[in-house]
Amino acid sequence: MNQMPPTEPLSAGAPPRTQAQRTSRSPFYLTVGCASVVLGLVLGIGGFFGVRAVTAGEATEPTATGPTQGETLETAPVGRDAAVSLGVTIPHASPDKFPGEAEIALAETDWDATEDVAAANEFNPAPPSGAKYIRVTAEATYHGEGALSPLDWIGVQYVDPDGGEHFRTYVVTETDADLPAEVADGESFRDSFVFQIPEDTRAGGHIVVLPDLMHGLDEGAWVELA
Description:
Structural class: alpha+beta
Largest sheet: 9 strands, mixed
Oligomer: single chain
Distance between the termini: 110 Å
């Protein structure tokens, strides 16, 4: 006859052990495991985007790609794609006007020079309604034989940020009083160029320096105005 294995006596008042009681810890461990997985995913995703943010910040740092203010170029750049910053000195030649070469740097821009133009000379005409004057001041030094006459030595045009082209307006400016009749090798002078533009024209754009106005814009040196 088969004998039943001995069993431990139950303590008084203790309920019998069941399968449900033996596995009651499983949901707890499952919950802890799921929470660990979720936390890992959150940290992983956060780290990924954090690295991307740092990388993006590094990639957007500005870098200088061309001549900066105060530099002097030996060769004049040609065309809009080779535009230089305000304050860069470039060589300028105009064989029909003077035999040597001038170094020129556009020094500053006055985006509303209407009152100053009016004050410079009582005979200067006022711009029509809805228009204004802007003034660009240049510093130049002549090098070479013969002499340069500042009264007729350069061609300039203003190209606004929207591509509008504006010819120079010939009015008397405050620098005209100090302009010499001629300059020889090594002598310097300041000149101002005035343009009449619509009042709502955005600041910016370029001055194009040309040997004369018979040349096209794509043949000139472009200077970006600040």
